[in-house]
Amino acid sequence: MRFFKIIAVIIVLLVGAYAASMYFFVEENKNFQIEKEVDYPLEKVFSQFNNLQHFTRWNNFFTSSKSIDIDYYTPYEGKGSAISYVDNKNNRGGEMFIRYENPNKTLKYQLFEDKNENPTLVDVKFKAVSPERTKITWYVHTPKLSVLRRVENFWTEDRFAENIEKSMGNLSNVLGNKVEKDNQMAAIKYDSLMVEKEEEKIILGINVSTSNKKDALYKNVVMNYNKVYNYVTMDLGKKDDEFGFPVMMTDADNYKDKEVSYFIGIPLSKKIGITDNNYSFRTISPTQDYIMYYKGTYAGRIRSIQQLIQKAKKDEMRFGDIRQTFIERPTEDQNVNMKLSLSVYK
Predict the structure, then answer these.
(1) Confidence class of residue 91 from pLDDT cuts 50, 70 and 90?
(2) Structure confidence by residue, pLDDT tens digits, 151-173
(3) What residues pair up with 260 in beta bridges, in sequence order?
(4) Fewer CB under 10 Å: which end of the chain, C or N?
(5) What is the pLDDT of residues 115-147, one digit of tens each?
(6) Quick one: which of 170, 173, 169, 164 has its CA closest to 58?
């Protein structure tokens, strides 16, 4: 009995010493700020923060778990918008609100985690460093913690900073694809032959062989594009802003063949682990291309392909595959909107 009393006294003394040290030497809450810069215009960056549907697609706090379930409440952007989230697998949940908005300048968030009635307050300020670069500053005020939980304040700032670092990588991927798509749409000049340098791309897709009779090829393209799109969005959990326009790669002159082999896929920012052997990655190395934008029936693209090949032969250039980039998703019984790219070299 005496032994247990001694142990109890030691435990009480240790708890008391811990509580006293927390009370006198550790702050009950944390205040800190973090700054980052991204190479995108202010308006495009701000729109990713004030729309919570966009926000949860790249913020690591939400994207780090595949089991999280998020509900969105109107209005979906700006002051008054809100979400609630539950992640049963990781035993967490909470609510988030936008309490204040000064367009393209300031947002104020409240985050209630788990059953804590006191929110984390996050003010985010935006400043255009240049037309193509934006500085983002987070001012964070964490809720007061009880004496026994104050030890958490030792890693709160590091955890928040790590989350922002990962989130900025995700945001850059999202905005990179959005800017690329916007630029491509703005640069379209239909039926004009142009020269373009293509940067390296990583494409996830499938290899296919099919008949070239009548509409059989295009129906097959639509079917296999939908397979790839569903795999990327449903199985891999990617959002539309996280990947580029679908690309079909095939021999430049196989439109004359009775059977066509092609690779169709979706550009991703990097290779990731996949478990389905039907899909594979293909890398497009930097090339110089002859390109034409085309809009019309799928069969009508052949004339544009022929023009690209004739141009290459006239310039005494060798050529490789033809890439068909669908500016609008291929849909059965509808015209196509695409960029045709013929890689050429001496």
Answers:
(1) confident
(2) 454 446 778 888 888 888 888 88
(3) 210
(4) N
(5) 777 888 999 999 999 988 999 999 999 876 554
(6) 170
Q: Which tokens sit at 180?
A: 């690329």
CB 152 within 8 A of CB 25: no
Map out the domains of the chain with their CATH numbers: 27-185 (3.30.530.20), 194-345 (3.20.80.10)
What angle in degrees, to the nearest 10, is found between the helix axes of 42-50 and 153-186? 120
pLDDT in tens, 210-234: 988 878 899 999 999 999 999 998 8
Burial (CB < 10 A; 0-12, 13-18, 19+), residue 177, is buried
At residue 224, the 3 state secondary structure works out as: helix
**What are the residues whose beta carbons fall under 8 Å from the beta carbon of 46, sequence distance 6 or more?**
103, 104, 126, 134
Nearest Cα residue to 306 out of 189, 212, 185, 191 = 191
Note whether 258 and 338 are within 8 A (CB).
Answer: no
For residue 75, what are its two tokens? 């209005």
